[in-house]
Amino acid sequence: MTNQVSNRTQRRLANHLCLNVLKAMKYHAIIAYSFVSKKALALVQSLHLPIKSVRIIMKENPVIELEFRNDYVSLEFEMGKNYKQIASLNDLPLNVNVFKGEEVHLAVTMSNQGMALREWIQHLCSISNKVKLHEAEFHIGDMQFDVQSLRNAFPKLRNIGIHGSRNETSEHETLNAQIILRAFLPYVKEVELISVNLGENLTCEHIGIANLKNLDFVHPKNFNFDCIFTLNAESCNIITDQIPLRDLNRFFKLWVKQPNPRRRSLMISCDMETVPDWNVLLKGLKFEEIEKEAEEDDEEVEEDEEDEETGADEDEEEADEEKAEDESESETESDEELEDEEVEGEGKKFLIRNCRGIHGQIEVKLFEGSASVKFIVSKGYS
Predict the structure, then answer these.
(1) Got the DSSP string for 288-318?
(2) pLDDT of residue 248
(3) How far apart are alpha carbons 140 and 216 in whole angstroms?
(4) Among 90-94, 101-105, 241-245, 317-321, which stretch is predicted with the lowest mean pLDDT?
(5) What number of CA atoms fall less than 13 Å from residue 196's CA on the CB side?
(6) In the chain, how long is the greatest CA-to-CA distance?
(7) Acidic residues bias located where (predicted)?
(8) What is the pLDDT of residues 17-68, one digit of tens each?
(9) How many other C-beta atoms can be found within 10 angstroms of the C-beta atom of residue 343?
């Protein structure tokens, strides 16, 4: 009995000593130590490391980034030449480079520990229960994925980003994007699609069924503007250079008649090679121009709204009063006046109102022979 107590005491002392040593080590060294054994992992887990976020980047050589309160640790996996042609996460990396700090200094190179890529992901995501954010970025390219392997390997994600090829379009990329969305769309809150090909098998309608917090389209391919009204995302951002002004004008008219009540904000940025005819953009719309003083007030309201959403009803009454006073003038504003006030390098803002009494702000800017259009729907403009 005495020997058993003595052995337990020695084990506790040894564990206590190990914990004190671990606490004195740098984060990248602690991470590396966790791969020594299951006991080492358990000791590291008991530290409850202050990891703010874990970002998993799936590309030719995958990267896992761990952000701490005041430090960064990232692991890069050298996968070998055939990795992109394999349909699962069961491949073993050739080796793993561990980097430290924001300036990304190579700290140590590890062997693959006999672990497949999915096991590395599971291990690193289990190190701390303090992680507030798990997110993933997929560079689809020529890589292949399958739904079950993705769900088994990855933790519960909040955000995902899918990157396609900017210039090339392939069915393989579209299929990969479908697989990733099928695996994670029911669970994530934010989705970003960059240069992703939208076609018959991957449309806005497929994505729109999810009740997302944020949905971003960056230079989407084959994008149908009419599908915006099927999206349930609270906030939707679209950046593109392929939207004709007539399509934008039709979208604004549809928004006036059939707005989505769930959406809190919508921003469309469109960069064009030629200066557009704003008369086409605003044709048939009842709008009022926002003066500079009003712009500053609206920006202050929008900033305050990010912290709290109080006072929305009062803002709506004030905006309605201003609109009632100026509506007759805005409806009769001549096309010539609009053209005369356009100055290269400057912008203009207009308000339109939908059937629910919500205002949308159209912002147009001209700079160096190109132009941008932004449309923002927010309670700050109500």
Answers:
(1) EEPPHHHHHHHHHHHHHHHH--TTHHHHHHH
(2) 84
(3) 17
(4) 317-321
(5) 29
(6) 99
(7) 292-344
(8) 778 888 889 999 999 999 999 999 999 999 999 999 999 999 888 999 999 9
(9) 9
What is the C-alpha to C-alpha distance for residues 228 and 330, in angstroms, rounded to an integer? Answer: 27
**pTM: predicted TM-score of the whole model, two decimal places:** 0.77
Q: Which helix (H) or strand (E) holds 3?
A: helix 2-23
With 80 as the cut, is the pLDDT of residue 292 above it? no
Closest Cα to residue 101, out of 65, 47, 61, 130?
A: 65
- For residue 216, give Cα distances in angstroms to 160, 251, 268, 323, 350: 11, 18, 10, 31, 24
The C-alpha atoms of residue 186 and residue 192 are separated, in whole angstroms, by 15
Q: 263 with 360: CB under 8 angstroms?
A: no
Q: Which has the closest alpha carbon to 255: 287, 296, 299?
A: 287
Q: Rg of the chain over CA atoms, in angstroms?
A: 27
Give residue for tokens 């009494």.
357
Q: What DSSP designation does 30 have?
A: H
pLDDT in tens, 113-127: 999 999 999 999 999
CA atoms lying within 13 Å on the CB side of residue 52: 7
Q: What are phi and psi of 289, to 5 degrees?
A: -80, 140
State the residue for tokens 């230079």.
219
